[in-house]
Amino acid sequence: MVIILVIHLLIAIALVGAILLQKKEGGLGGLGGGGSGGMGGMMSGRAKSDLLSRTTGILAAAFFVTSLVLAVIGSHATQQGPLVPASAPGVEAPAAPVESAPAEPAQPTTPTVPAGQ
């Protein structure tokens, strides 16, 4: 579960970076530079846009999948109890519930009448 969580966090960081690199129409989007400045002129504006769009889509799909996997693992963990192994040092295994025999019903008693009445 920890490995999936680390992968999930790395995907989230990469997704934020890919979104911030995309060129927007106005605002502060495209902080990575214009069509020729950001990548040193290696790619045209259109090719860069297609690559970032595809990368964002792939990262978004991976983020969605890891979110579902973590949710399923988390729901199974709550149904089956904590994920602490019984052999962990310093952790005692929970004791099995003790089933006792049902108590016998109390015998009815007859009221006693005081002597003298």
Report what the structure shows:
With 117 residues, the chain is mostly helical. It has a domain at 46-83. Helices cover 48% and strands 0% of the residues. The protein is rod-shaped, with a radius of gyration of 33 Å. The mean pLDDT is 75.
Q: N- to C-terminal separation?
A: 80 Å
Q: Helix count?
A: 2
Overall mean confidence score, pLDDT: 75
H-E string = HH
Molecular shape: rod-shaped
Give the tally of β-strands.
0
The profile of the biggest β sheet is: none
Keywords, please?
2 helices; 48% helix; 0% strand
Write a short abstract of this structure.
The chain is mostly helical and 117 residues long. The chain has a domain at 46-83.
